[in-house]
Design a protein that fits this description.
Layout lengths: L1 H33 L9 E5 L7 H15 L4 E6 L2 H13 L7 E5 L12 E7 L8 H10 L1 E12 L6 H13 L18 H11 L2 E15 L2 H10 L1 H7 L4 H19 L6 E14 L1
Parallel strand pairs: 1-2, 1-4, 2-3, 4-5
Antiparallel strand pairs: 5-7, 6-7
Helix pairs in contact: 1-3, 1-7, 5-9
Length: 286
């Protein structure tokens, strides 16, 4: 199962890096800025489920500036279960001028990291752990590899009621899906889309305390609605749902979504701007 999921994310690398990393990278930079004052000099940082490098690459830039200023630098370990995501991040970091003294990019299962206890000053997961099949294992592993007093930071989308991007994506799809394909959401990440639920799950799963959520707003810009539809079909989460549709069912979903997104954009070739809201959680290792 893990191998199949990793292969799906391998395939999604080009679309994710081109269309979504500008959004997730902006949010990831905010995650770093929120805890900048907590990070010691030469901090050891971990990025869990690094994807195409949304958080690891800003961390690399920070480390390079630190080395230029002081002669020493923080280090980053970027991990993902998708080998192609890891390789994309490695190449992007190398293009910035980072060597292995700054960043190591490694394939790891985030539910069982092959990393030593208490070896990092801060662990980040930008839209990563919330998608794990066993989220609680992900929270525990993040805490396990943190030193006492270390910082944990993660981001999770807010649900459709408060998140226009998700509402405009899911609303027309759910309206057009046949009833037998509509997901129940039981056990899914939507359970932790509210700040209180996210804090409760993280702090009861792992030795993390003083957790606080910061709502964060950002806008996704896409050149036209067709790119967004293609990206949804390519996404391992949404795409897996759409793949269950028969050709007739998929045609109905496409018609509903395309009409909605065209109207939202204001025309066939108009750019699509989608406001998004996530919760950024910051907590401390006990």
């Amino acid at each position: 199962m893990q191998k199949d999921a990793a292969a799906a994310w391998d395939q999604h690398v080009p679309a994710y890096a081109r269309l979504f990393e500008p959004l997730t990278g902006y949010i990831a930079r905010a995650m770093l800025h929120l805890v900048e004052s907590r990070l010691p000099p030469r901090a050891a940082l971990l990025d869990i489920a690094c994807g195409s490098g949304a958080l690891a690459l800003p961390a690399v830039r920070r480390a390079l500036r630190e080395r230029e200023r002081t002669g020493v630098a923080s280090t980053i370990v970027a991990t993902d279960f998708s080998p192609k995501m890891v390789e994309h991040t490695r190449q992007a970091a190398a293009a910035l001028g980072a060597d292995e003294a700054i960043i190591r990019c490694e394939v790891h299962n985030g539910e069982a990291l092959a990393l030593a206890d208490a070896s990092f000053d801060a662990a980040f997961s930008s839209f990563g752990i919330f998608l794990f099949s066993d989220r609680r294992a992900g929270w525990r592993e993040a805490a396990r590899v943190l030193r006492p007093g270390g910082t944990f930071v993660t981001s999770v989308w807010q649900g459709p009621a408060h998140n226009p991007m998700l509402r405009h994506q899911m609303g027309p799809i759910l309206a057009a899906l046949p009833p037998h394909l509509i997901p129940s959401n039981k056990g899914g990440w939507i359970e932790i889309s509210e700040a209180e639920a996210l804090i409760a799950e993280v702090t009861t799963s792992a030795p993390l305390h003083s957790a606080r959520c910061y709502p964060f707003h950002a806008t996704l810009a896409i050149s036209n609605w067709r790119e967004y539809w293609d990206a949804m079909r390519d996404n391992p989460v949404m795409g897996a749902l759409l793949q269950q549709c028969s050709p007739t069912e998929l045609s109905a979903v496409h018609a509903r979504v395309s009409q909605h997104l065209r109207e939202l954009a204001g025309g066939e070739e108009e750019p699509l701007l989608l406001d998004s809201v996530c919760n950024i959680l910051v907590a401390t290792r006990s």
